[in-house]
Specification:
Layout lengths: L3 E5 L3 H13 L3 E5 L2 H11 L3 E5 L7 H10 L8 E5 L4 H10 L3 E4 L4 H30 L14 E7 L5 H11 L3 E4 L15 E6 L6 H11 L7 E5 L5 H9 L4 E3 L5 H33 L9 H18 L3 E8 L2 H8 L1 H17 L6 E6 L2 E7 L3 H17 L2 E2 L5 E3 L2 E8 L7 H18 L4 E3 L27 E3 L4
Parallel strand pairs: 1-2, 1-3, 3-4, 4-5, 6-7, 6-8, 8-9, 9-10, 16-17
Antiparallel strand pairs: 11-13, 11-16, 12-13, 14-15, 15-18
Helix pairs in contact: 2-3, 5-8, 5-9, 11-12
Length: 486
C-alpha cells in the first residue's frame, strides 16, 4: 500500500466511488460517515491523509478540518475538502480554514491522484525532518526557534503571454509583507543572489507548456532545490496540472491566477518553507555536533577516522605522500591539578586555535582524546611535516596561554610524525599508531620536541611511559605561571 486514506462522507455512494478509485491506485481506504466518527477513526487508524465532504451530518468539512488541525497528533495530516459544486467563496473559505486542497464533484481522477501523491510526499519529507529534529532534541542539542523571520522572497515567472503579470505581482505586494519579483521565463534559471523561498510558475492562455519544461529544471538546480514551487495552470490544462505535481510542484492552482487564492497558498508555502528550513538547519547542526568536539570546535575521532581513510585512498591514487601528526600537551595533568579544570579547558581551546592559525585549510585537525590532537596533512612529505611540527612546538612554547583569571601559563607540546608514502601499504590506523609511538618517544626524549616515526627504534626507553616530573624541579618543559594585572 502507498498510504492510508480516511474518506469522510455521509453518502455511501460517494464513499464507495472514492474507495474504488483509491484502492485501484493501491491506497488503503478507511471510511467514516460523520465528523465525530472521523475523529474517532483518526485516533484508531492514524491515516496519512483525509478526504472529507464539505457537508457532514454533525459538522461541516471546515469544522472537521479545524478540529483535526488543533490536535497536535493530527496537525500535519493533509486534509482535502470535497465540494458539491464550484463556488469561489466556499473554496477560499476552505483553504483559509487550513485545508491543503479543495476538490469539486465530479472529481477529476487524474488531478486528484497527482495531488494526493504530492501531499503525501511533502508530508513524508517533513515528517522525516521532524523525526531527526526530535532525535536531536532528545540528545540535548535542541534550541528554541527564532521568533523573527525576514520577509520571504517570492519569484513570479509568467509564461505564454500571461496578461497582467505585473498587476498580479502588485496585488501580492499589497497583501503580503514579502518581497515579490517578476522574472521572465528566459531568465528563470539564471542564479541571482539569494535563492527564492517560493517560485510561482504561471502558465498563460497561449502557453505551450513552457512552465512545465521549466519546473523540473528549477527543482533540480542546487540554487532552487529547496524553494517551494507553486504551479498555476489554465482551466484547460488538466494534464499539465497533474504532471506539474508529479514533477515536484508543492502546490497547484488549476483555474488560472486568482489573486486571493494565490495569496492563501503563498502564505502556507512560505510557512512550510520556513519550518523545513529550520528543521534542515537543526539537522545539520546536529550532524556537526555529532562529529565535533564541543569544547574546541574541532572534529572528533568519529569524523577523523573515515576522513583519514579517504585521504589515504586519494594519496595512493595520486601517488603523493601524506603526513599524520599526533600531538600531546606536556604535563597537562599538572595544569588541571594546580590551576583547575577551567584553566585546562582554556589551554585546550588555545592550542586548538593555534593549530588552526598555523595549518593549511586542507589539513584536518581533530581532538583525538583528552589533551591529544591529531593532524592529517595531504600532499606533505617528511621535510614539510617536520618543519610544520617544529613550528607548532615553537609557537606553543613561546606564546603563553592567558587563563581566565589573567594568569599567563607557558605549556609545551610534544609531537610524533608518521608519513604515508606512495607504494607503502601501511593502513591509516597503523600509521596513526606509529605516530602515537613517536609521540611517546618524544615524551621520553624530554618533551617539547618532535620525533619522526621512522627513527624511533634508536631511541632508548621507547616502550616506557614518560615519568612525571619531580614536583620540586622547574625545568623548561614544566608549566610556568606569572600573574598579570589583577
Amino acid at each position: 500500500m502507498t498510504g492510508r486514506i480516511l474518506v469522510v462522507d455521509a453518502v455511501p455512494t460517494n464513499r464507495i466511488i472514492l474507495r474504488v478509485k483509491l484502492s485501484a491506485a493501491f491506497y488503503e481506504v478507511v471510511q467514516a460517515a460523520s465528523g465525530h466518527a472521523a475523529i474517532a477513526m483518526m485516533r484508531k487508524t492514524r491515516p496519512d491523509l483525509v478526504i472529507t465532504s464539505s457537508e457532514l451530518p454533525d459538522m461541516t468539512g471546515r469544522a472537521l478540518c479545524k478540529a483535526l488541525k488543533r490536535d497536535q497528533a493530527h496537525a500535519r495530516t493533509p486534509i482535502v475538502i470535497v465540494h458539491g459544486e464550484e463556488d469561489a467563496d466556499e473554496r477560499l473559505a476552505s483553504l483559509s480554514t487550513g485545508a491543503d486542497d479543495v476538490l469539486v464533484r465530479p472529481i477529476d481522477d487524474l488531478v486528484m491522484l497527482a495531488r494526493l501523491r504530492s501531499l503525501l510526499r511533502a508530508r513524508d519529507a517533513e515528517a522525516e525532518l521532524q523525526l531527526r529534529d526530535d532525535t536531536r532534541r532528545a540528545l540535548g542539542l535542541g534550541e528554541e526557534a527564532a521568533q523573527f523571520s525576514n520577509p520571504a522572497l517570492v519569484r513570479l515567472i509568467p509564461t505564454g503571454n500571461l496578461p497582467d503579470a505585473q498587476v498580479l505581482a502588485m496585488g501580492l505586494r499589497e497583501r503580503l509583507d514579502d518581497q515579490i519579483e517578476v522574472v521572465d521565463a528566459d531568465d528563470a534559471l539564471r542564479e541571482r543572489g539569494t535563492a527564492p523561498d517560493v517560485i510561482v510558475i504561471a502558465e498563460g492562455p497561449d502557453s505551450r507548456g513552457e512552465g512545465l519544461v521549466l519546473l523540473p529544471q528549477l527543482r533540480a538546480s542546487t540554487h532552487t532545490r529547496h524553494s517551494a514551487l507553486i504551479y498555476i495552470a489554465q482551466p484547460d490544462q488538466r494534464r499539465e496540472a497533474a504532471s506539474a505535481l508529479d514533477m515536484g510542484a508543492n502546490d497547484l492552482l488549476g483555474s488560472g491566477p486568482d489573486l486571493t487564492e494565490l495569496t492563501i497558498r503563498l502564505r502556507k508555502q512560505i510557512d512550510r518553507k520556513r519550518t523545513n528550513d529550520r528543521l534542515r538547519a537543526n539537522m545539520q547542526d546536529g550532524l556537526r555536533a555529532a562529529v565535533s568536539d564541543p569544547l574546541t570546535g574541532l572534529y572528533n575521532r568519529r569524523y577523523a577516522l573515515p576522513h583519514i581513510s579517504r585521504l589515504a585512498d586519494r594519496a595512493a591514487e595520486q601517488r603523493r605522500p601524506y603526513a599524520l601528526l599526533v600531538s600531546d600537551l606536556d604535563h597537562f595533568k599538572q595544569v588541571n591539578d594546580l590551576y583547575g579544570h577551567a584553566a585546562g579547558d582554556a589551554v585546550l581551546v588555545t592550542l586548538s586555535e593555534r593549530l588552526k592559525d598555523n595549518l593549511r585549510a586542507p589539513d584536518l585537525i581533530s581532538r583525538w582524546g583528552g589533551e591529544e590532537f591529531l593532524v592529517a596533512m595531504p600532499d606533505t612529505d617528511l621535510p614539510a611535516a617536520r618543519a610544520t611540527a617544529e613550528r607548532l612546538c615553537k609557537v606553543m612554547a613561546e606564546q603563553p596561554v592567558i587563563l581566565p583569571d589573567g594568569t599567563q601559563l607557558t605549556v609545551t607540546l610534544s609531537i610524533g610524525v608518521a608519513i604515508g608514502r606512495p607504494g607503502d601499504l601501511t593502513q591509516p590506523l597503523a600509521l596513526i599508531e606509529q605516530a602515537d609511538k613517536a609521540l611517546y618517544a618524544a615524551k621520553n626524549k624530554g618533551r617539547n620536541t618532535v620525533v619522526i616515526a621512522d627513527r624511533i627504534a634508536a631511541l632508548p626507553g621507547l616502550n616506557e611511559r614518560p615519568r612525571p616530573p619531580i614536583q620540586t624541579h622547574t625545568g623548561d618543559d614544566t608549566p610556568r605561571a606569572t600573574r598579570t594585572g589583577g
